[in-house]
Amino acid sequence: MRPVLYAAVPAVILALVLTACGTTPPVRHYTLGPLAPLGAAPEAGPAGIAGASLVVGPVSVPAAIDRLHIVRLLDGARADVADGHRWAAPLKTEIARRVAGELARRTPYARAVAWPQASIADPDLSLPIDVQRFDAEGFERVTLEAVWSLRKAGRDVASHRFAATEALTEPTWEALAAAHGRLVDALARDVATALKTR
Q1: How many CB atoms lie within 10 A of CB 133?
Q2: Predicted model pTM
Q3: Nearest to 81 by CA among 92, 68, 90
Q4: How many C-beta atoms lie closer than 10 Å to residue 161's C-beta?
Q5: DSSP 3-state of 185
Q6: Among 7, 83, 119, 165, which one is most buried in terms of CB atoms within 10 A?
Q7: Is 7 exposed, middle or buried (0-12, 13-18, 19+ CB in 10 A)?
Q8: DSSP 8-state class, residue 65
Q9: From 9-23, 44-58, 111-125, the region with the lowest mean pLDDT
């Protein structure tokens, strides 16, 4: 009986060691953060667009960041793909959702929704966005470069190239995600300026 007990002890220890080796840190998920406070009510805008609809998207992003893992550039060219820090949804989906939310709050286009959607069969305007660069440089700064177009009945009626850089407030993953969000808000404000003059 006793030899069997002693023989079982190493097996139990081995199982515990293997279990400890197999544990991984928890995966943390991030969004682009809460919407910025709205300082003033949206301007009325040109007559005839009250209740007008706008679909934001589709949004395209570079293949290097078209993933749930958060990607940072290190040493200028090396990409660090974070296993334990991920976006809560695909980045192109988050961008479309956030831009739509900002435009609904800041322009007369209160019926602004993210693509793909089913609530608006024939939108008055669509807003495809081509994100050409959305780079996080370590824990220092994030740069967004994008080209957007406003389309009506399949034809471009306005377009613009947007570029901006946002510094991180602190070297954390939360601050990195928030910097991404502030840049998307700035992109939305760029589009809002064009919408208010239409």
Answers
A1: 14
A2: 0.81
A3: 68
A4: 11
A5: helix
A6: 165
A7: exposed
A8: G
A9: 9-23
Q: Which amino acid type is present at position 68?
A: L
- DSSP-assigned states of every residue in 96-163: HHHHHHHHHHHSS--EEEESS-SS-SS-SEEEEEEEEEEEEETTTEEEEEEEEEEEETTEEEEEEEEE
pLDDT digit string, tens, across residues 128-180: 999 999 999 999 999 999 999 999 988 999 999 999 999 999 999 999 999 99
Residue type, 85: H
* C-alpha span between 117 and 95 (Å, rounded): 14
Question: Tell me, what amino acid is at 156?
Answer: D
Going by C-alpha positions, the residue among 101, 125, 89, 123 that lies closest to residue 36 is: 101
